[in-house]
Amino acid sequence: MQKLKIHSLTKTYDGQEALASVDLDIQAGEWVGIIGESGSGKSTLLKIIGRFLDADKGEIFVDEKKLPPVSSQLLKGHEAIKLVHQEYELFPNQSVRENIAYALRFYEPEYRNQRVNELLKLTRLEDVQHRKAKLLSGGEKQRTALAHSLAEVPGLLLLDEPFAHLDPNNKQTLADAIEDLKKSHRLTCLFVTHDASEALAWADRIVILREGNIIQEGRPEEVYQYPINQYAAELTGLVNILSAENNAGQRVIRPNFIRIIKDESKACWTAVIVKIRFKGTHYEYYCRTEQGEDLLCYRSRRDREVGEKVFLTSSKKHSQLVARH
Ligand SMILES: Nc1ncnc2c1ncn2[C@@H]1O[C@H](COP(=O)(O)OP(=O)(O)OP(=O)(O)O)[C@@H](O)[C@H]1O
């Protein structure tokens, strides 16, 4: 698949709009991360693109060819598009190995075995390959479903909360494996996640959904640094929201752009530390300014204490004026 184009996709459930005229283009090899609050339409969009659900209006083109309605197809789905759901559709009484092999049932046994071995290794399922699917942990089920979807490398991989059940080690291993696949096979992927750091790390492009509308899209750095409003800012990571001068919207500043300094004359704010939280790689310092606003900043060491008065600064270029909502 070279290109997927979505035009004016609209979907309503019982009179409630879940998607409102969504347009989206995805190029071959691109990884697009969709983020949005619960109920913003992420899964609905994936199900429509995965050909499991018809939109009320709008069109989907694969390589410039318009797809017919799902209801006119004998079977749901699309041969080049694979959707890995949150509810993994595995055969409960079949082993991991058998579940993955099923995706390759039309191939010669020799190739099938070799490919299943590769996929077991890729998804780190070798140790549980003979265990029945119904006995697997959530993360193992998720990896089995992923291995199944990657058996024949799809033109477009759709992942709904791909790493939801994985611990950080497994998550990293799987993400590395998928990145390898991305490079070697130019895997194209559209994934939905609740985890902003996941989206920022893995996506080439971030798409932000709100109440069925795409409100912002762009490179992860762009969206993180220049969110268009408070919703986009809060979805993409921790952020300080301050009221702007003359009631002109809000000012957002990421915590990594606020520093504690010694020199009062260079301070933008005088504040008191109200809480310090250890985060492994750094400390979060929660401060309250003299004007009563809350400010969060990061620091690599714990050299201040709760209750201490501090001077804070941030350069103008790192603060962004945004719309209130
Ligand atoms: N089958 C359905 N029948 C009726 N309403 C539905 C159905 N599926 C989804 N909805 C509604 O449509 C809206 C969008 O749902 P969707 O599952 O796409 O959101 P989401 O962004 O994926 O949410 P979450 O992050 O919680 O999974 C929600 O308000 C949801 O309640």
UniProtKB/TrEMBL annotation:
GO cellular component: ATP-binding cassette (ABC) transporter complex
GO MF terms, alphabetically ordered: ATP binding; ATP hydrolysis activity; transmembrane transporter activity
Record lineage: Bacteria, Pseudomonadati, Bacteroidota, Cytophagia, Cytophagales
First and last residue of the signal peptide: none
Residue intervals of the ABC transporter domain: 4-236
Domain of life: Bacteria
Pfam family, one: TOBE_2
The protein's name: ABC transporter domain-containing protein
Keywords, comma-separated and alphabetical: ATP-binding, Nucleotide-binding, Transport
